[in-house]
Specification:
Layout: H1 28-35, H2 57-65, E1 69-71, E2 84-86, H3 88-93
Antiparallel strand pairs: 1-2
Length: 95
């Protein structure tokens, strides 16, 4: 449930005060995406989900923005593919 503080601003978890040290947690789709890297060499993350559908770029970019994933060195075959790998912060987020 969202709450509004005295300032009238949303105080939901995504708008936590700067003094709060709680780390953001991956959403369920982000968690599923990141978890797939646990069994891959170098933490390589998939382009497709378990059902063969492309992982949404929004999910990948959100994981990069949180520091849970980083782009894999450029793949010369398909430059438009956003291949990533888990970061140390990504491994910690999955605990």
């Amino acid at each position: 449930m969202r709450s509004v503080g005295q300032s009238g601003q949303d105080e939901s978890p995504s708008h936590q005060k700067a003094g709060n040290t709680a780390l953001p947690r991956p959403t369920e789709p982000q968690r599923r995406y990141l978890a797939r890297g646990l069994a891959e060499a170098g933490g390589k993350l998939p382009l497709f989900d378990a059902d063969g559908r492309e992982v949404p770029h929004q999910t990948i970019k959100a994981c990069i923005a949180h520091g849970w994933a980083e782009p894999w060195p450029q793949i010369l075959i398909k430059r438009d593919w956003l291949v990533c790998r888990l970061t140390p912060k990504g491994y910690r987020a999955l605990r």
